[in-house]
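Bumping with the actual sequence this time:
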Amino acid sequence: MYTAAKNTVWRALRPFYGRDAWPMKVRAGPAKGATLILDFRMNGSYWLGTYDNWILSRICIEDWLPRGGVAWDCGAYVGYYTAIFRNVVGDAGKVIAFEASASNFAVLRELPALNDWRNVQIINCAIGPDHGTLEFAGELGGASGPVDFKKFDHPIITKRVASCGLDELCFEKDMAMPDFLKLDLEGAEMVALHNGQRVFTEKRPILLLELHGDKVLSSVGDFLSEYSYCGWDVRYFNQPEVGPFVSKGSLETAIGNLCNTMVCIPGELKDKRRRILGIC
């Protein structure tokens, strides 16, 4: 009944907008007040501000991204995390959103003007292999992704898209290094984590990391060891008694029991987490 009602309202409103999605102001949550372009048949949780509450109730972005800081939203889709980051960094910070899907990008690029965000940059490229291209299935909404890393069980339309590495973006294209980095790359995380050597050693951003497959987990384990990061299944990040993964070996003990999202912080910030949780 609820779905039928949404479809009826959508059909009634669509002629006024001339497209499937239109500007809607987020009603609650950490992105509250931002205007996103949404198809409310599929994106109702973004509009209501309930999307990813199970994640955002366990890591408070403001604790880890400073006012005036820099955040990257890699795999931005409709820009929900872009809006959260912009709310946190304010006018003095910077947010860069990366989206490889041409159709998603066409919508996303409207957000800075809609919201008068003068410090939000929208870039049409994939994050993954540096100085290259990826074969990308870009017409699947939030499920769009690179066929090089993601398997699809149905026919798809693909195109080659530009792909950049983290160090390439910062040290060749002069983009501001992130304090907070969200990676949702549908499998390309396994490459992105290993072409940001200078970013992870010089800037050492906080990572909110989506996991797509066991191969990604292996790469995450290597990343934790190589760069002295600590990682938590996001479900336990705010639980004082749960310790971090710090290597491939420690992470392999949890394979099969992990959710699809991890929080990774530099090892030297473990005491900050303890202070935030009130256990120092």
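The tokens above came from a reply further down the thread. The chain has a mean pLDDT of 90.
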